[in-house]
Each structure stands twice: as structure tokens, then as C-alpha cells.
């Protein structure tokens, strides 16, 4: 009998193990034997320790890597919350599939395979490389109704989990989260208000580039979404279903699945971090498998990252999404692993210790 989405989610969470402390200690000992003052490579050292704790290896080969771009539409677009129309979502999906989006370029530079999933685009899409896993064609308008049912939220999480299992079985060892969905900074801001306790004004940013007047309107819409739906802060799936998004739910699954399969998962910007927060609230044991990539220019990202317990690797003033920041972050993970593999030790180089 096929497992229900609820079982898939529960089994996945139950499988998440703590990091390998012995491997972390071995990485720490190796880092301290290298020709540098202890700790002087900062976050590169933290990444090396984390990668060791996840993989159980001193310097794992993480060349098999994928960015998973979940695409879904948002009913709340009818409230005028984005600078761009909803049709851009399917149009960008086709752009990902033909290799022309920013994330494609950055993925190619880091040897990353891109998988694009239609988990909820409000248009019929067919393409040989598109993973068609539509749970429903777009969410409900959260200013008036729930984004989706609880069952649909669980189904979308299960889509992400099952994809990670499939890719992990095919040899992928590291994942990046990516998304496309016009209107999804509104849903992400609503998640921040519901789960972090930020005010709508703190959580709402400019998204694709609205002006301050439209941002004020977006704040009101987010507040209305919370007043209408009354999500329960104690129940992350309730929050996801009532004010979230299908692509956000899919990414919750990607993150939980990565943790269950002991894969490092690099979290992109504001929207991906909203998914990371839901995953963290469902399964705090998944947090050690996550790495924050960059600090998005989107207002609220810094508080959101802190709520998950992540510290971004880079500050590039980016505010695009798609997985761009996460894939860029792969360069730094590669840098950390090269240090582990190639640097001389005090002993091998004949350098005196302090
Ligand atoms: C051409 C284009 C490409 C994008 N790639 C990612 N996003 C980003 O912008 C959207 C969120 O912003 P908002 O909530 O303001 O709509 C998401 O689709 C996100 O991935 C894009 C947006 C546009 C216009
Ligand atoms: O940080 C992000 O992910 C982001 C910010 C603005 C618009 N789209 C994505």
C-alpha cells in the first residue's frame, strides 16, 4: 500500500539523525594541524566541520549536486502585491528549462544540475525536462481564504521528500533550494508573522521591486491574511497550509528529505528561508543539515535567518530567489573542502607551532 503524505512526512522526520560528533572532532583536529592560526579561516572552518559531521568523511566529494527549483502560483497576486504579473511564473519555468535564467548560469559555474518542479503553477506546462508534480494549480488568495488544505500541504511536502530520495539514490550528495512563484514574498512574509512573531511591517519587503506605497498595501494584505486565516503558531503545517505556498511546502520537503538522507542542504534567500523555518519547527533535528547561503536584500530576511538559527555565508545584496544565492554558496563549500584536502600541516611543511 502506498504511504499517505502524512506517513511520508512523519517517517522522514523520524529518520533524521544527529551529526557524527567523532567526524566533527576529527575535522577540528585536522583544521588545527593546518598551517594557520587556529580558527583563522572563520566560517570556512565551520563549513568543513559541518560537512564532516553530515557525511562522516574528513573532506567528502560533494561534486554530485543539484538545485531543486519548485514553481507554484499564488492566488494573492490578484491583490496587486507584486511588481510582475502571475504569467511570469510559467514563463520563467520555460526559461529555467531552456537554461537562460540567472540560476542556470550560476548552476553551470558550480557543476550543479537543475531540476525544475511544477508543484503548483496555474498554467498547463509540458516539457521533457519538467518534473510535473502539480498538487493544485496555484493557491487560494490568502487575503480571503486558505492557501490550500492541510492534505495538499502534506502532499506538497511529500513531493519534495520523494524527489530528494530519488536524487540521493542517483548519487547526488548536496542540494540547494530554489523557487519561482510570483507573489511568494507575500506568503513568506505571512509565515514570518505567524511563526516568528514579526509585525507585518517588519516582514514585508519590496519583492520584485514595488514602491513604498505598494509595500504599505502589501503589509495590509499580509495582516488581512493572518486575520482571515488565524494560523496556529504551534502547528507549522497549519501555517503553511493557510498562508504559505505550494513551492514553499515542496521546499520544506526538500529540506526534511535532505536531513533524513544526511545530505547538506544550502538555503537560498527569503522564500527558501521561510521554508527552512517551517522545516525547523517541524523537526529541529534538521537544522544542522542546513547552511544559510546569503543575506537577501528582502526586508525581514535577517530576522528570519536568526529564527532558524542560520548565519549567511555571503552578503551580496541579491534579491532574486530561484536558488541563485544557494548555488553561489556552493563555491564556498568547495573552498572549505579544498582547504581540508590540500593545505599543508605544520608537520608536513616544517612550520613552527605557536
Ligand atoms: C523575471 C523574474 C524572475 C524571477 N526569478 C525569481 N523571482 C522572484 O520573484 C518572485 C517573488 O517576488 P514577488 O513576491 O514580488 O512576486 C518569486 O518568483 C521569486 O523567485 C523572479 C521574479 C521575476 C519578475
Ligand atoms: O530573497 C529572495 O529569495 C527574494 C527576494 C525578492 C524577490 N524574490 C526572492
Automatic annotation (TrEMBL):
Active-site residue list: 322
Alphabetized UniProt keyword annotations: Cobalamin biosynthesis, Glycosyltransferase, Transferase
Regions annotated as coiled coil: none
Catalytic activity reported: 5,6-dimethylbenzimidazole + nicotinate beta-D-ribonucleotide = alpha-ribazole 5'-phosphate + nicotinate + H(+)
Superkingdom of origin: Bacteria
GO biological process, one term: cobalamin biosynthetic process
UniProt GO molecular function: nicotinate-nucleotide-dimethylbenzimidazole phosphoribosyltransferase activity
Pathway assigned to this chain's UniProt record: Nucleoside biosynthesis; alpha-ribazole biosynthesis; alpha-ribazole from 5,6-dimethylbenzimidazole: step 1/2
UniProt keyword Transmembrane helix present: no
Family matches, as Gene3D superfamilies: 1.10.1610.10, 3.40.50.10210
Xref: Pfam families: DBI_PRT
EC number(s) reported in the record: 2.4.2.21
Function: Catalyzes the synthesis of alpha-ribazole-5'-phosphate from nicotinate mononucleotide (NAMN) and 5,6-dimethylbenzimidazole (DMB).
Assigned protein family: Belongs to the CobT family.
Stated name of the protein: Nicotinate-nucleotide--dimethylbenzimidazole phosphoribosyltransferase
Gene that specifies this protein: cobT
Amino acid at each position: 500500500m502506498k504511504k499517505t503524505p502524512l506517513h511520508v512526512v512523519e517517517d522522514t522526520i523520524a529518520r533524521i539523525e544527529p551529526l557524527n560528533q567523532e567526524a566533527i572532532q576529527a575535522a577540528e583536529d585536522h583544521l588545527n594541524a593546518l598551517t594557520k592560526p587556529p580558527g583563522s579561516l572563520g566560517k570556512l572552518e565551520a563549513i568543513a566541520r559541518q560537512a564532516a559531521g553530515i557525511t562522516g568523511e574528513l573532506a567528502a566529494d560533494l561534486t554530485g549536486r543539484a538545485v531543486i527549483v519548485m514553481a507554484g502560483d499564488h492566488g494573492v497576486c490578484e491583490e496587486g502585491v507584486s511588481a510582475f504579473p502571475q504569467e511570469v511564473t510559467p514563463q520563467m519555468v520555460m526559461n529555467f528549462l531552456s537554461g537562460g535564467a540567472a540560476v542556470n548560469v550560476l548552476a553551470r559555474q558550480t557543476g550543479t544540475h537543475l531540476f525544475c518542479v511544477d508543484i503548483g503553477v496555474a498554467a498547463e506546462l509540458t516539457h521533457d525536462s519538467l518534473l510535473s508534480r502539480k498538487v493544485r494549480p496555484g493557491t487560494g488568495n490568502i487575503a480571503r481564504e486558505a492557501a490550500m488544505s492541510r492534505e495538499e500541504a502534506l502532499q506538497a511536502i511529500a513531493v519534495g521528500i520523494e524527489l530528494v530520495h530519488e536524487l540521493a539514490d542517483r548519487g547526488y550528495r548536496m542540494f540547494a533550494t530554489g523557487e519561482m512563484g510570483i507573489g511568494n514574498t507575500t506568503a513568506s512574509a505571512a509565515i514570518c508573522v505567524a511563526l516568528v512573531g514579526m509585525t507585518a511591517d517588519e516582514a514585508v519587503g519590496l519583492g520584485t521591486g514595488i514602491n513604498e506605497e505598494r509595500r504599505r498595501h502589501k503589509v495590509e494584505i499580509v495582516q488581512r491574511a493572518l486575520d482571515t486565516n488565524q494560523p496556529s503558531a504551534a502547528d507549522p503545517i497549519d501555517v503553511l497550509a493557510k498562508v504559505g505556498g505550494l513551492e514553499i511546502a515542496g521546499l520544506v520537503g526538500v529540506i526534511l528529505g535532505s536531513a533524513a538522507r544526511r545530505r547538506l542542504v544550502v538555503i537560498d534567500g527569503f522564500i527558501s528561508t521561510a521554508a527552512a523555518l517551517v522545516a525547523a519547527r517541524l523537526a529541529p533535528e534538521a537544522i544542522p543539515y542546513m547552511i544559510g547561503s546569503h543575506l537577501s536584500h528582502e526586508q525581514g530576511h535577517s530576522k528570519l535567518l536568526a529564527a532558524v538559527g542560520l548565519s549567511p555565508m555571503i552578503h551580496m545584496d541579491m534579491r532574486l530567489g530561484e536558488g541563485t544565492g544557494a548555488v553561489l554558496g556552493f563555491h564556498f563549500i568547495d573552498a572549505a573542502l579544498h582547504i581540508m584536502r590540500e593545505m599543508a600541516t605544520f608537520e608536513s611543511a616544517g612550520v613552527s607551532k605557536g
